[in-house]
Amino acid sequence: MTHAGRIAVVTGAGRGIGAQIAIELARRGATVVCADLQMPAATLLAIGSGAVGVAADVSEPAGWKTIATAAPGTVDIVVNNAAYYPNAPIDTLDFDTWRRTMAVNMDAHFLSAKQFLPGMRQQKWGRFVGISSNSVGLAIPGMSHYIASKMGIIGFMRGLANDVAADGITCNAVLPGLTDTPATAAMDDAQRRATWQGQAIQRFADPADVVGPVLFLTSDDAAFMTGQALVVDGGQYRVG
Ligand SMILES: NC(=O)c1ccc[n+]([C@@H]2O[C@H](COP(=O)([O-])OP(=O)(O)OC[C@H]3O[C@@H](n4cnc5c(N)ncnc54)[C@H](O)[C@@H]3O)[C@@H](O)[C@H]2O)c1
C-alpha cells in the first residue's frame, strides 16, 4: 500500500498504458481519478469501488476544471499519459495536426500544473509524471511533431522541477518504448520483432512493464529524484 491515502489523476486512463497505471495505483491504495475523452468504463470496472471516472479533454482548461471537480480532495499525483500521435511526414503534416499534437501532448502538462500546484504546495507534497517516449532518441519517420512534443515533456518536467522542489513536489518523465496497446495493435509480427530485436530484453513490451517506474516515481521512495527522464524500453535507447 505504497500509495495509501493519495489522490491520483491519470489521463488517458481508458485503455493501454494509462489504464494499467490507474489500476495499479488503485491497488497500491490510491484513490484514482481516471480521465479520458469518454468515461473510462472498463478501467473503473477493473478498479471497483472507490474509482472516480471523468470524461474530459486534457488539451482544454475546461477539461482540467472537470477533473478537479471530480477529485474527492487535494490531488497528490498527476500522471499525464494521454497522447495524440498521428503519423505524418513533414511534407504532408499540416498546421492543425501540429497544433493538436502540442495541445494534447504538451498543453495538458502545463494546465495540470496550474490546476493542482496550489494544493500540492499547501500540503508540501506532490508528484508529476509525464509520459514521454523513447522515440525522442530513435530514427522514426513521420513523427517530427510527436517527437517534438515528447521532447517538450522532458523539458517541462526539468524546468518545473526547479520551481516546485522547495515544496516537496517532484516532476519526472517516463519514456516507454513501443508497447503492446491499442496504439500499436496494427503492427504486424515482423514490425514488432524489428523493435524488440533492437532491445537488450528480447520481447515486445506490455503496458505492465511501464507501470513499475511510474509507481516508484509517484511514491515516497523517489522523494530525492526530480527533473529526470527514465527510459523504460527493455534497453533499446541508451542515454548518458
Ligand atoms: N504504446 C506505445 O508503443 C508507446 C510508446 C512510447 C510512448 N507511449 C506513450 O504512452 C502513453 C500511452 O500510450 P498508449 O499506447 O497506451 O495510448 P492509447 O492510444 O492506447 O491510449 C491513450 C488514451 O488517451 C486518450 N486520450 C487521447 N487524447 C485525449 C485527450 N485530449 N483528453 C483525454 N484523453 C485523451 C485516448 O482516448 C486513449 O484512451 C502516450 O503518452 C504515448 O505517447 C506509448
Automatic annotation (TrEMBL):
Pfam families associated with the record: adh_short_C2
InterPro entries assigned: NAD(P)-bd_dom_sf, SDR, SDR_fam
Family listed: Belongs to the short-chain dehydrogenases/reductases (SDR) family.
Listed name of the protein: Short-chain dehydrogenase
Organism: Paragemmobacter aquarius
